[in-house]
Amino acid sequence: MKKQIRGFEMAFEDTGGVGVPLLPIHGYPLDRTLWAEQRRGLANVARVIAPDLRGFGESSLPTGAVTMDTYADDVNALLDTLGVKTAVVAGLSMGGYIAFAFYRKYPERVRALIFANTKAGADSPEGKKGRDDSAMLAREKGAVAIAERMLPKMLTPKTATERPSVAASVNAMMSRQSVDGIVAALLAMRNRPDSTPTLAQISVPTLVITGAEDNLIPPKESELMRDGIRGAKLATIPGAAHLSNVDQPEAFNRAVQDFLKSLP
Ligand code: MLT
């Protein structure tokens, strides 16, 4: 489905139904198909509304600078358009950075939070330099070169060797993203604020998820988030790297399902 919001066309998936609205926000450099196994596995307990962020998947990229607030405003407008008042907001990696921004701007809309394979801190100076290098690589060599660099960090070596079709589909997802969308996201991540002070302000039920083998954003970051957010629960998924929902969809979905059931 597509809706015209805030001057561009936003593509999204909506499973409908009467369950609690669940808004999963994809990471970088990905799109809504990241959540295919969650749509399948969670549609019986939630109304899954999965957007393509501006510049990714089938969503267009209007001109102008992009920040985490821009993405947050976009998904807020999507909820408006769909007449959805409150949702469980979930974000993987960059999606988590956006979930922080969304919570700061629209706390009244957040029924609960799920932070998967993400972190509160901002980019270090070396991290910022890495963003600049990646932006140059994207401009010079295209999304395929970015995908090649990212793929080994996304899934466990076991998934890569034993489920080659899964690795191929993640590689294809990254390779088909537009260079402009990738560069905009790199800049947005580079300039994102430190969300550490937000942790103590979160007053909704929160689930933090990590992959035991996530080397891109190590489990230590998720433990810090769990410790900083009042009452937060942490699920560490064995046999999962950065895309824990793709590496281990059943364990990921079970953690989300148990969390949704526990909501007041
Ligand atoms: C992501 O998976 O969304 C990004 O790799 C996160 C990051 O680079 O900070």
How would you explain this protein's 3D organization?
The protein has 264 residues and is α/β, with parallel strands linked by helices. Helix content is 47%, strand content 18%. The protein contains twelve helices and eight strands. The protein has helices at 36-42, 68-82, 94-105, 125-141, 143-154, 157-162, 164-175, 179-190, 196-199, 219-228, 244-247, 249-262; strands spanning 2-5, 8-14, 20-25, 46-51, 87-92, 110-116, 206-211, 233-237. The protein has an eight-stranded mixed beta sheet with strand order 1-2-4-3-5-6-7-8, with helices on both faces. α2 packs across α3. The chain is globular. 46% of the residues are buried. The mean pLDDT is 98.
Number of helices: 12
Rg, rounded, reads 17 Å
Q: Uncertain runs with pLDDT below 50, 5 residues or more?
A: none
What structural category arises from helix and sheet content? alpha/beta
Any idea what the shape is? globular
Which distinct ligands sit in these coordinates? D-malate
Helix content: 40-55%
Percent strand: 15-25%
The average pLDDT score comes to: 98
The count of β-strands is: 8
Terminus-to-terminus distance = 31 Å
